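User: I'm writing a short report section on ligand binding and want a predicted complex to refer to. Could you take this sequence and zinc ion and write out the structure as tokens? A short remark afterwards would be nice.
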Amino acid sequence: MKILAIESSCDETAAAVVENGRTVLSSVISTQIDEHKLYGGVVPEIASRRHCENITGVVKEALERADAALSDMDAVAVTNAPGLIGALLVGVSFAKGLAAAADLPLIPVHHIKGHIAANYLTSSELEPPFLCLVVSGGHTHIVKVTDYTELEVVGKTTDDAAGEAFDKAARAMGFPYPGGVYIDRAAKSGDPAKYTLPIPKTQAPYDFSFSGLKTAVINLIHNTRQKGGEPDVNSLAACFQQTAVTMLKDKFISAALELGEKKLALAGGVAANSALRAALSDAAKLHGMEFYLPDLSLCTDNAAMIGCQGYYEYLAGNVADMSLNAYATKKLHCL
Ligand code: KG4
Ligand code: ZN
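Assistant: Sure. The structure tokens for the complex follow:
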């Protein structure tokens, strides 16, 4: 079964052709990052307008690279939640048009389920159940993946998402948007012991909190400047990253131990972080757990992961009609 998948929830217009959920025949991503960089973050109206301009070309290229026509497709899958509403509506409307024109089933996909599915594309042997740490620009969740389409949220952030904290801390350090990857790079030549940052506490054992950590970075920079100095940005990046990674690792591993989970996975844009990948890989090894993580190219937003999850949604009968809508927020355990 060949699925044409579309993703437009934030600042990437993406399309892919995925066969039987696991084989990527093409994946095209048109990123708007350079334009949003000018404003220090994604400007929703600009994102919607660029999706509108780019989506036809991106879908056309995905079909061409897969050496296929729309008539060769068996279904159209599209991210319909969560995300920037204007951005999502472009993808959803386009997918509806394609599905109507070619008389194909229309499959709505939850963006975060797509991020989790990126693991199936990287590791062909991976099957649920497993415990997944989802860390993106908008989400931070510990999720029990009980089946391909059945999830249970075990823990979540009580304030900022992990990626949001990386991006805001990076901005304070003077890095461009999105700053997560710049912190990752700078941290490699910094001394994580040079500064001390607090690990925020949460009430629920598997919940996360990042806003205090972000504020501590901003305060440290201000205080240093007030005294006429400049922070050592590489060391501050290393310290921030180590603190964030420690929090994510400790909560995720203790959830796995307490829930008796032996198979772990990582997903979302922050899954590209080299320190997080290494820390979780070491911790899983230490506790005799299997650990899966997506290829770097599949961590940040793409449509291949939507095509993969779309296949399993289709098998579960989760197909939409032409009244399909987009939603800025949607609970992860809801279909
Ligand atoms: O999943 P994603 O592409 O978009 C959302 O669904 O939110 O995630 C983007 C996030 C951004 O916050 C970005 O800074 C972060 O992923 N990110 C990283 C790294 N690469 C991307 N954060 C830390 N280290 C990285 N290497
Ligand atoms: Zn994403």
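A remark for your report: The chain has a mean pLDDT of 96. Residues 111, 115, 136, 269, 301 surround zinc ion (ligand 2) (CB under 6 Å).
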